[in-house]
Specification:
- The chain has 152 residues and is mostly helical.
- 47% of the residues lie in helices and 4% in strands.
- The protein has one domain (9-151).
- It contains 6 helices and 2 strands.
- It has a two-stranded antiparallel sheet.
């Protein structure tokens, strides 16, 4: 589809709706907080998963997000492996037959996993830029002080 991605309804309510387009009152709302790592995860992947769950804003990750978080965990694990191997072998390696220096295959793996992680990061709200656009939970008990007239 051409054009920018549509904004979720809750963001239009928070930021305003300058285009005055109709709001989607029937937008699906995911349920069930994401908690336990998939059963097929090994200890390394489970540690990465638990770190993400523990450090994500409360209520942000839902069960429907499990596949994206799983991809992020796998990409992070492979990124770490490639980084470790790259430190061990160096950026350039010699071909077995001609002894010509070529780029280590670990460089391509490292770069590919970084791209996957960055894409998943945007979808999960893990980056500072995407976190600044997310609102979870209710207004604090004391409100927003001077901002109340703007936000509520």
């Amino acid at each position: 589809m051409p054009g920018p991605k549509p904004k979720p309804t809750h963001l239009k309510l928070i930021r305003g709706n300058p285009g005055k387009r109709p709001l989607n009152n029937r937008e699906p709302k995911p349920v069930g907080d994401l908690k336990d790592a998939p059963a097929n995860f090994n200890d390394d992947l489970r540690d990465i998963w638990n770190y993400a769950i523990e450090h994500a804003p409360a209520g942000l990750l839902k069960k429907i997000d499990s596949a994206i978080l799983e991809a992020w965990c796998n990409a992070q694990r492979l990124h770490r492996l490639a980084s470790t191997e790259l430190r061990r072998t160096g950026v350039l390696i010699r071909t077995p037959n001609a002894e010509i220096p070529v780029q280590s295959p670990w460089v391509a793996i490292l770069n590919k996993q970084a791209l996957i992680m960055m894409r998943a990061t945007d979808h999960l709200g893990f980056s500072p830029a995407t976190r600044s656009r997310i609102v979870t939970g209710d207004v604090p008990a004391g409100g927003f002080g001077a901002w109340d007239s703007i936000t509520g």
